[in-house]
Every structure is written in structure tokens, then in C-alpha cells.
Amino acid sequence: MFESITSDNDRGQVGIGTLIVFIAMVLVAAIAAGVLINTAGFLQTQSEATGEESTQQVTDRLQIVDIVGTAGNSAITQVDMTTTKSPGSGDIDLTEVTIELVATDAATLEHSTHNPTDEFTTTSVDGSGNIVTDDDAEDLHTISIDLGSISAIDGDGLSEGDSLEMRIITASGASTSIEIRAPDSLSGGAVSL
Fold first, then answer.
1. Which domain holds residue 27?
2. SS3 sequence, 101-140?
3. Which InterPro entries does the record cross-reference, listed alphabetically (predicted)?
4. Is the pTM of this model over 0.90?
5. What is the tally of structural domains in the chain?
6. Dihedral in degrees, nearest 10, Cα atoms 129, 132, 135, 136
7. Which of 89, 73, 79 is nearest to 136 (CA)?
């Protein structure tokens, strides 16, 4: 039934073959574990980046504090919006903001440094530049739109009783929607909208 091993030279051959198979299995398992760990690290990094981008799309938006129009000859010719950033948002570069207007037609406005035709300009109340850094009353910026030069608006501006829809979109994709309605009678000067 059992063979007896008579030669001392044949004894270790069975053990070496088993050891080689065992080492090969350990190497394959180590390589597979390394691939799994690398993949898990990559997926974690990608999910963190996606989470940050999603958060920015929700929070990195401008908050409108006040809207004032300049009226003349029964039309609002300029709109000045005082803005700050919403609570919890990061710094917002106003030169990277776009504004979508819908009046009689639609237009996309860019900062005056990017587009000389359908444009808006920005002014910092405290002179700090075009980047909104704080979400308090000290860091206010004014976005000015000359309605007479916008291709989407007929005539010289926003006429009495007309309305205008705006969507202010930051570089991260967060947006603020507002509707501006001109009063039924304009007498000239500054008008709160």
C-alpha cells in the first residue's frame, strides 16, 4: 500500500514542488491585492473630487443684496446689482461669471474683460478687486449692466411694466435666478427694483 522511500535523494522533491506552487499562489494574491488597493485609492480620490465639485455647484453662488435701476425717458437704461457671496461658498471671481438674460430675446453676458459687446462690469464697494472673498456686508460688489447696449432687449432699455429674467452663473456652475420688473410709471433717476 505505501511505498517506502529507500533513497535519501528522492525525499525532498515532493516538498519543493509544493513550495513552488505555494509561493506562486502568494505572489498572485499579492499582485491582486495591490491592484485592488490602487483601484480603491483611485476611486476614493475621484469620489472626493466629485463631492467637492457638487458642493461648489450648490454653494458657490452670488447673493443679491440690492437692485437699483437708472431710469430715463420711460425706460430703465442701467441695472446695478449689489452682491456678495452666499454663506458657505468659496471665493468667487466675478470675471468668470456669466449672466443669462431673457427679455424679448435671450443673451449671455460676459465680463467686460472677455466680451466687448454683450457685457457687464463689476465694481468693488471697498476697492478690493473682482474677487468676492467674504460673505459679510464688508465685501460687497456691484454688477452693472447697460441695458441699452444688450442685443436681447428691444429699444433703449427696460420699458415701463416690462420684466427681465436673469440667471447669474459662477465659474463652478452655481446659479442665482432673479426677475426684474420695471415699475408701471418711471419719472427718471434711481429706481429700486
1. 8-60
2. EECCCEEEEEECCCCCCCEEEEEECCCCCCEECCCCCCCC
3. Flagellin/pilin_N_arc, Flagellin_arc-type
4. no
5. 2
6. 10
7. 89
